[in-house]
């Protein structure tokens, strides 16, 4: 398994970060709406073993398994470090059926809008969720720290938890019960898809964040 090293930065100004990326000469890769399904056994054996099994559909579909490294791996607690296996999926509906046939069930579902960039060996993800906006950096510890300084993210609150935990923290802070999903409303989804179509038509990738109906605007 390869090691995934990442760090999140909470409550950024995504338009401002996007403009810095343009000025820095970063490479824009993609902008899409993601649908994610987390699977586990009915008795949550994967969760007990600190394993995440996720089916994701965006421009393409992937099946991903992640787990915490064993104690022999030296970890830097400033970052989230996971062992990861990932493969492309040609038919996500069939893959979901296979997982369910094997006894797995969907335990959580979530959506986000993600813009992906690359700069100096670091992957930069500008993420809009139904309840928050986040920048996620993935690379080496050195490239993550360098990129965070260049984008002004080092002044923001960092996080090493996953989006499911961020959602739970959000619900706790608001004093509302957790659900088994966080999804965009139909209005938000339609606005996001319209914004993505505009971006595909050649507008600046930062333009989506200027739309007053864009989620999180």
Describe the structure.
This protein has 217 residues and is of the alpha+beta class. It contains six helices and ten strands, in the order βαβαβββαβββαβαβα. The protein has an eight-stranded antiparallel β-barrel with strand order 1-5-4-3-2-6-7-8, surrounded by four helices. A hairpin with a 4-residue loop joins β7 and β8. Helix content is 29%, strand content 37%. It has a single domain (2-210), classed as Hypothetical Protein Pfu-838710-001 (Beta Barrel). The model has no long low-confidence stretch (mean pLDDT 91). The termini are far apart. The relative contact order is 0.22. The protein has helices at residues 14-24, 45-48, 92-101, 141-151, 163-174, 186-200; strands at 2-10, 27-40, 51-57, 61-67, 80-89, 105-119, 122-128, 133-138, 157-159, 181-182.
